[in-house]
């Protein structure tokens, strides 16, 4: 059996350096890392990950808990799996449907908490104050802003207010003046409320009143966006643009417009949120707010790994990057590349 000491002798480094390469510690130089990996290949060494995890009292499993099976969470899950794999970790994905009882179960049941080394959690129905009282027994990172921020947990957040303001300002800059909003439900999560406020702030800065007739609620599917757009088209004065809280609603809204003889963007321009893959390939392609999902995944996984390695510092809040990607649904066909990014 080839062991780490054999690899260390072949590479001319210490066994500790071999261990650091296996754990992907960033401070190992690239030449040393390459030499160690070459020695592993020459000797046919394969690390016994299970044994190492057993010695450390770990299972090697993370769980990613999401509220819904929306495209955004599917694409985020893919990024989390990729980053976790870099650390020798396996990800188990679960869904709560936004049910507070189901969310409680994720952090209370001993058979669940004993199974995983860490939890990446996108809460939808559970009040964070209650979550604080539950005192989860494993490292946890929360995704998204909360209306009830307590500062008790590591979190990855995104500036929904600024992004929604930028989306609305983009439409205002194109000369649109009757801008509607299709918003998702407002619960304990702060994101939907912040997106609403960003929309209102942009209108106010432009000297335009908010018209409640142009604000519609939609839980988040394409069908929801379709129905909300039908209601907007029935207004006394229909909108000339619409901001949607997520891309599926925006795609549903575009379908409703095209089905009923409206041109997008000539008659009504549409902006979504989340930059899901479908929006890049839709006709017209969808202007959207893109969050850096790779950054979200990497910071979430690395935060848990740091906690497992003994980091007992104060909870951290990481703000992830975002950008507005303008495509055909606001700029027209001539403004977009011939093929999606």
From TrEMBL:
Keywords: DNA-binding, Transcription, Transcription regulation. Residues 2-56 form the HTH lacI-type domain. CDD domains: HTH_LacI (cd01392), PBP1_LacI_sugar_binding-like (cd06267). It holds the Pfam family Peripla_BP_3. PROSITE patterns: HTH_LACI_2. GO terms for molecular function: DNA-binding transcription factor activity; transcription cis-regulatory region binding. The keyword Methyltransferase does not apply. The keyword ATP-binding does not apply. InterPro entries: HTH_LacI, LacI/GalR-like_sensor, Lambda_DNA-bd_dom_sf, Peripla_BP_I. This is DNA-binding transcriptional regulator, LacI/PurR family. It comes from Microlunatus soli. The lineage of its organism: Bacteria, Bacillati, Actinomycetota, Actinomycetes, Propionibacteriales.
